[in-house]
Amino acid sequence: MVGMIHTSIRLFMSGTFQPHGYCYQWNAGLVWLHVISDVVIAVAYFTIPLTLMFFIRKRRDLPFSWMFALFGLFIIACGTTHIMEIWNLWHAEYWIAGIAKAITAIASVGTAILLVMLMPQALALPTTNQWMKAKKELENEISERRGLELHLRRNESTFRQIAALMDLTHDAIFVRNLQGEFVFWNKAAETLYGWRKDEVIGKTTHDLLQTVFSEPIEQINAEMARSGYWEGELVHHRRDGTTVIVSSRWAMSSDEGEPAKILESNRDITKRKEEEGKFRSLLEAAPDAVVIVNDDGRIVLVNSQTERMFGYMRSEMLDQEVEMLLPDKFRGKHPGHRNRFYSHPKVRTMGAGVELYARRKDGSEIPVEISLSPLETKGGILVSASIRDISERKRAMETIRQSDEKLRLLIQGVKDYAILMLDSEGRINTWNEGAERINGYRAEEILGTHFSKFYTADDVAADKPSQELTIAEQNGRFEVEGWRVRKDGTRFWANVVITPLRDEFGQLRGFGKVTRDISARKKTEEDTDLQRKEVAQKNAQLLVANNELESFSYSVSHDLRTPLRTIDGFSHALLEDYAGKLDDEGKSHLQRIRSATQRMGNLIDDLLNLARLSRASLHLQLLDVSSLVNSIVSDLCKAQPERQVELQITEGLKATADAGLLRIVLENLLGNAWKFTSKKPVARIEFGRVKCRGISTFFLRDDGAGFDPEYAGRLFGAFQRLHGLSEFEGTGIGLATVWRIIQRHNGHIWAEGMVGHGATFYFTLDEPSPQGAQI
User: Fold this and answer.
1) With DSSP H G I counted as helix, E B as strand and the rest as coil, what are the percentages for the chain, rounded to 5?
2) DSSP E strand boundaries for 226-317
3) 213 pairs with which residues across the strands?
4) CB of 762 within 8 A of CB of 692?
5) Angle value at C-alpha 227, between 223 and 228, nearest 5 degrees
6) Per-residue pLDDT reduced to its tens digit, 108-132
7) Which pLDDT does position 61 carry in this prediction?
8) Do the beta carbons of residue 739 and residue 749 sit within 8 Å?
9) DSSP letter at 325?
10) Is 700 helix (H, G, I), strand (E, B) or coil?
């Protein structure tokens, strides 16, 4: 401790040393020169570290900043040595000065060593020129970036403006990258397809829209690669599943010469395609050949009638000059006519008043009519030529001309009819031999005069001739019968027909008048009318007589029943009460008497029924005929259950008739069929309906005894029998009753048959009978 204190005293005490001032002999100038110089150096040395420390704090990013701190320490130590030099001018503190210099020496050596070690790294730092060059490059890069940013801002602004403009267009516009993914989608696309922009961005175009291409996609891509553009028609699917046909235009954008994106513009042409389809359908349905030609005279469209008329395939005519369809003699002048038409296009008929001809592929020529219609399109004026082959018309006109000539000759030679032509005022233009014979005038006497010359004075005063022309003009025909006057003043009864004559435009050109002298027919009709009245009077008398006869028949038939009942009753009593007293022959006689009275009773019943049919009123209604037949057949089967009969009855047959009377008809017909098949072990009866000469007809067919067709006319007469009582019982009234009931229903009945092969009866109800079938 004492040693340390002693050392400190030695350091801070000058001891025996002399201040430097003595060395300078206290020369004031020299002393102050050293003082001032050391003060300035010390201040400078102390200022440099402070500046370096300030710089290091402000620039913490500098490399080797600790080297600057060590160098600052070295400078401070150097400044301290200069301060000690000033101090030691008056004080001899050389130990402290030495220590300060030792510290300075250590700092300087350390700084020097570290500086040498850092020199390679320091040398690797850019030079000033390099820094300046780098600075300039940086400034240039900054400038370029600023320009690029400005360009991008301008492009972005332009893009937004373009996008806004694209939203204004009615066409659906979208942009896709080379992978087919949407990168832009305008509002029209949203409207057309139904998807919003945010729903489609990033999705694949053709997958979303399910595109149907008009040509292979490979060809489209090849065209895009070659020209950067493609145009055509596509079919797309909307969001709701419906399809839309679009006219599509593709354009490819490039980035530094390389393909970048594809802009696609689509216009909805669905309605236009539908209209084009209708137009083509109308064009194909046109009865005439239609050829559409552009202003260069080349064919752009034809219909199927053109192919049939000219014999060319459609592909052979398209884009060819229209003169190919003209005969050689017209081809040279036709382009001039065509050019004149294009200079003043309007709808008109070509070559009015001139015979026109067209040339087929095989070289043959045909007469035609041509109508021209201009069509204004975006691509210029097109002309539609409707071409009609009038070969048949020409032949028909020639035939008509020949027919007219024959008709003229025929009319001229007709002698039973007065055939003449009148103008629209009623003046006579033509006159034939029949008119001369009937009316008494020669042609030179009557031509040009008014046809009222043939009417009576009363008819002329009543203006009947003019009225008849007016009615004929309005109704298309007028026919009348009346008195007409000859040249000699005599009258005849005439049938007159007046017909208006019009041209192809419907304009009245005159009248045709045909007059026939029917005086003889008039007299015959008068005689016939008189005879008809006489017949009607006789028919009325006959009707009264028939009614009286029917009443008499009814009365007689009714009165006969009383004695018949008496005879039958007493003969029956004899058989019962006196059977033991009568021999077999007597009993046989009585039995025959009873059978005869019973047959007489049945005959009277049938006569009464027949009489009632004429007086009974009809109650018509819709009846199920099949059901009625089944009911009657069921009764027959119950009456004779031992019979074997095959029945074939068509179900569902209906007719309008009186129920009671129709049942009588069917009972008689079915009863006859049942009766006349009784001798067959297995019989067959069929009922149905057929069409007989277009008329619905019922039939009943059996395979029984049949009849001789020669006597078919007798079948429906009263008391007419074709078989004896020993063969088949009956009165002969049944079919007469059937015939009368069918007649009352405005129907008809007839029969067909062969002996041993059965019979078929046909009948209709309230319908006309087939011709020749009525009996």
Assistant:
1) 55, 20, 25
2) 229-237, 243-255, 258-268, 289-293, 299-302
3) 234
4) yes
5) 90
6) 777 777 777 777 776 766 677 776 7
7) 67
8) yes
9) G
10) strand
